[in-house]
Specification:
- With 302 residues, the protein is of the alpha+beta class.
- The chain is built from eight helices and eight strands; from the N terminus they run ααββααββββββαααα.
Length: 302
């Protein structure tokens, strides 16, 4: 473990602090014992966020950069929230966020994330409980999380499972994916974490501020990857286009043309032409007409 930006004495002191903190976590998490409390941090609620974005924020989001804002709950508590636009349909983005069993393959620093309980409630709500094992510098944390999922709103909140003992003191969080069009989403993420006992400030920053900044980054990367894998090739797109056009044409109700019957006299040739045709032989007249159209040959002079 190296810290190139710090002097040698400070690096040595930080290694000692990390080692001391590691010893304090030896007898921590347990799936057979309850947590130390029933929750200290205020939990998030399912539903859209109340975040006001300025014109400058909107311009930054359109450029592909995330925006950090302040989210205030009903009790006046202020929390940071990350906002980012992703050019992927919301159901794909939210699917990546809810795929907790694969967090170890998608999120940096997560060594293991495994679901141990899933329950379906009325209204389509779902509760998923997962075991997390993460590594921050040389510290390892194990904790148990309860996720409340609302697929209809593309919203998920989470907090510790207080029936099991975790290494961290408390943690609450919030995900919300807003529909921005057929192939665009706006992602909101907020999280608050409280560590137990003394933890070095660099470790605390990685688990709080840095984790907040990087959360929407991995979601964008994995959502774009999933969306590209699901999209059909050029040949399939052409077939679908032709099929859609045919279906649309069949559904179109074109106006019917009402034509008046033609006068039979209009189909008869003019009287002058009719008399001329009746008085002459057609073949001979045609030959004479062609001969008259040809230029006369001049007699050759010898």
């Amino acid at each position: 473990m190296t810290f190139p930006a710090l002097p040698a004495e400070m690096r040595s002191r930080l290694r000692w602090m990390v080692a001391a903190a590691s010893l304090s976590l030896v007898a921590g998490a347990s799936d057979s014992e309850p947590h130390y409390h029933d929750g200290k941090l205020t939990r998030y609620e399912l539903g859209p966020p109340s975040v006001l974005l300025s014109d400058a924020d909107e311009a930054k989001l359109r450029s592909g950069k995330p925006v950090m804002q302040v989210l205030e709950d009903e009790l006046g508590a202020r929390r940071l929230v990350m906002v980012q636009d992703i050019a992927v349909p919301p159901q794909i983005v939210f699917g990546r966020i809810c795929d907790t069993n694969n967090y170890a393959q998608m999120v940096d620093g997560v060594n293991l994330c495994a679901n141990y309980d899933t329950a379906q409630a009325e209204g389509g709500l779902r509760t998923v409980k997962s075991t997390y094992e993460i590594a921050v510098m040389h510290l390892k944390f194990k904790y148990f999380m309860t996720h409340q999922v609302d697929p209809a709103q593309h919203c998920m909140t989470f907090h510790l499972d207080y029936d099991r003992k975790s290494d961290i003191d408390d943690s609450v969080g919030y995900w919300y994916v807003m529909n921005q069009g057929r192939q665009s989403s706006r992602v909101y993420y907020s999280c608050e974490c409280k560590l137990r006992g003394w933890v070095p400030s660099p470790v605390y920053n990685v688990m709080t501020k840095e984790a907040l900044k990087k959360a929407t980054t991995w979601v964008e990367r994995e959502a774009v990857k999933e969306w590209r894998a699901m999209r059909p090739g050029p040949g399939d797109a052409l077939v679908r286009f032709v099929s859609d056009m045919r279906a649309n044409m069949e559904q179109m109700q074109l106006p019917q043309l009402h034509l008046q019957p033609l006068n039979p006299q209009l189909l008869q040739p003019p009287r002058l032409v009719s008399n001329w045709l009746q008085g002459r032989k057609p073949l001979r007249s045609a030959v004479r007409f062609v001969s008259a159209a040809r230029p006369r040959k001049q007699p050759s002079s010898l």
